[in-house]
Amino acid sequence: MEANLVFWNGQVITVDQELSIVEAVAVKDNKILAVGNNAEIKAFVGDQTQIIDLKGKSLLPGFIDSHIHLTLYGTNKLGVSCKESHIHSINDVLADLGRKAKQTPKGEWVRAWGFNETVIDEKRFPSRHELDQISIEHPIMIIRTCAHISVVNSKALELAGINDTTPDPEGGKIVRDVRGKVTGVLMETAHMNMFEKAKYSDEELRKGMSLASKDFISAGITSIHDAGGYGPNNLRIMQEAVRSKDVKLRVYAIVGALNNSEDFVKKMTQAGIITGLGDEKFRIGPAKVFTDGSSSGPTIATRQSYTSDPNNYGILYFSQEELNHILGEAHRKGFQITAHAQGDRAIELMLNCIEEALRQHPRDDHRHRIEHAGITPPDLLKHMKKLGVIPIPNPSFFYEFGDGYIKNYGERVHHMFPVRSFIDEGVIAAGGSDSPVTTHNPLMGIHAGVNRESRSGHGVGTNQRISVMEAIKLYTWNGAYASFEEDIKGSIEIGKLADFVILSDSILDVSSKNIKDIQVDMTVIDGEIVYQQEKKEILS
């Protein structure tokens, strides 16, 4: 049989059961036709076959990001980025916001994202009054890098009906100064409620999704597990974007919302859909709620107080009874279930929920998940293994937030996103970036999993380092397993979907310290070359 496309003379990392490395792979239409050495694959070359010489570079299964926010990342690109290289101070942020305000009609929102007070010169958030100096005619919102905290101006507070006497919402905090005056900083559900006020139009959502898809594909990502967005239209618009090919990625859509997640889950379970509905392009994933906050905030729910603050144990959204009811019902109706759970107290809550759901309604191969599983000490790890739960850790966090983890959690960093322990215990974990919280680049996730170092070079729980091959599996086969799709993708085997990433170098041969510097040369989805590095564009 003649192949449409052949790659040879490379380092083809198959991620099959034997972790085989071969030289070449042949594609027919959208499926893998053959895998082997150059001579074996040459037999499938015909007059019409496109041949690509890898010249010793690595070809891998397309990367699968098992926890990423397509809409949030994309709509952020419509606003001001606080992660730009020229941003060093609050004044730099205010200057960019001022320019954005001048381009924005009065009354419309002016937004910034990616703010991190720990790296800004002033080591603080701007105040509402500093934002008021930019404009009192535009509502203004700056979202912290964790996407769990924001600071807004007086116009935004006015639109949301927040004043000095407004009580804190359940699971959130309206920060006030020593005089009891609202500062403009909003945490957890207080932030989520404000973001609902600042919602995007359907057109903006669609545009953002398209922008995100292009960026993700250029990083070698071919499948994502979308971890939810804001508003009821997010899921519908995402389906439409995939159908129209504005989004070329394969999407496993987690049924959750960044605000009032429990209400959204209840509505979706009542609607009668369940995990697995859809096709290889767009499929319904697990039902998800939030149980605690951000690891870098820090607002995660911990069993012992923060190392940096003996009076702080974080924020917990639900009681055990409430969580059991919400996700227990979703489990009963056929959903895979999951929760954002970062701190060990939140993880314990979720594991108890899963155990009770399975006791009441046993189910084989449920593959229930825990998103992030930030602090997972040995007792919770064993509970996780017993229940067959899939954790979704975020290795990239160590590079950007590692120094803060050491400060806030002390020795607990040795059990943070503990991928080494997951592997040794036989727990299948799948890697996610949580972008835009940090970079969506899977090679940074692999780099951080292997090195466990912060940007400043400090080791962060180095006992949890893993090999390059183990890290690759985290972002390929394991991701497919976490979505019940390991029979069609996640490894380079005959009959599976032809989704590949070709790197600029041999990932198994470069120094581990240089993995983050490897580039993506090409991305293939469904046997179609959708990105080439030299052209710097998504191909039509």
- How much strand content do the residues show? 15-25%
Overall morphology: globular
In the CATH hierarchy, the third-tier topology of the largest domain is known as: TIM Barrel
The named CATH superfamily of the largest domain: Metal-dependent hydrolases
Q: Kindly give the count of domains.
A: 3
The number of helical runs is 17
Placed side by side, the strands forming the largest sheet appear as: 3-2-7-21-22-23-24
The CATH architecture name of the largest domain reads Alpha-Beta Barrel
Give a short synopsis of this structure:
The chain is an alpha/beta fold.
Write up what this structure looks like:
It contains 17 helices and 24 strands. The chain has a 7-stranded mixed beta sheet with strand order 3-2-7-21-22-23-24, with helices on one face. It folds into 3 domains: 5-62 and 497-538, Urease, subunit C, domain 1; 79-197, Diaminopimelate Epimerase, Chain A, domain 1 (Roll); 200-482, Metal-dependent hydrolases (TIM Barrel, Alpha-Beta Barrel). The radius of gyration is 23 Å and the shape is globular.
Task: For the structure shown, list the relevant keywords.
alpha/beta; Diaminopimelate Epimerase, Chain A, domain 1; TIM Barrel; 7-stranded parallel β-sheet; 17 helices; globular
Task: Give the secondary structure arrangement, pairings included.
Blueprint: E1 5-8, E2 11-13, E3 21-22, E4 24-28, E5 31-36, H1 38-42, E6 50-53, E7 58-61, E8 63-68, H2 70-76, E9 80-81, H3 90-102, E10 110-115, H4 128-132, E11 140-144, E12 149-152, H5 154-160, E13 172-176, E14 182-188, H6 189-197, H7 202-218, E15 221-226, H8 234-243, E16 250-255, H9 261-271, E17 282-290, H10 320-332, E18 337-341, H11 344-360, E19 369-372, H12 378-387, E20 390-392, H13 397-409, H14 419-425, H15 442-451, H16 468-474, H17 477-482, E21 500-503, E22 520-525, E23 528-532, E24 537-538
Parallel strand pairs: 1-6, 2-7, 8-15, 9-10, 10-11, 15-16, 16-17, 17-18, 18-19, 19-20
Antiparallel strand pairs: 1-4, 2-3, 4-5, 7-21, 11-12, 12-14, 13-14, 21-22, 22-23, 23-24
Helix pairs in contact: 2-7, 7-8, 9-10, 10-11, 11-12, 15-16
